[in-house]
Description:
By secondary structure, the protein is mainly alpha-helical. Helix content is about 85%, strand content about 0%. The protein is built from six helices and no strands. It is elongated and about 90 Å long.
Amino acid sequence: xxxxxxxxxxxxxxxxxxxxxxxxxxxxxxxxxxxxxxxxxxxxxxxxxxxxxxxxxxxxxxxxxxxxxxxxxxxxxxxxxxxxxxxxxxxxxxxxxxxxxxxxxxxxxxxxxxxxxxxxxxxxxxxxxxxxxxxxxxxxxxxxxxxxxxxxxxxxxxxxxxxxxxxxxxxxxxxxxxxxxxxxxxxxxxxxxxxx
Length: 196
């Protein structure tokens, strides 16, 4: 086999070009993307409001030891939230600046959505240690009519953690689906249409 035959064989093996997305399909994609951007902005402002409110409540807590514990706990939650929201902000920028002209660009975007879904669920689950700390603070500072036994404290703590983890995971999944998952499914449907 000579070099010309190898070149011809090589050129024949090159796959087709990446399919382009039509203007009509881009418009179908832009609607769910715009809804997701809107939901991300709303969620960001809600989180800021919640933390401002939480720190205001901390300022009126007494005794000082309780105020200190709650303030440190909320500040720790804020650090975790800032970390995860920095990931979400990257996705927000990618959604805002994306030029979906090809199938591969849309496929990359869907991959980013699925990655951020994992971040989102991780964000909710990461609040489990804070839940444990909150329960410990409540057990420590609530005046009980008679002191709790070690068994009762263990049952309250373990039961609260199990129920809390379940609620955190379930609420994270439901929240994600309501605000983002439905739109991602529409985009994945368009991706599957292009694939055919």
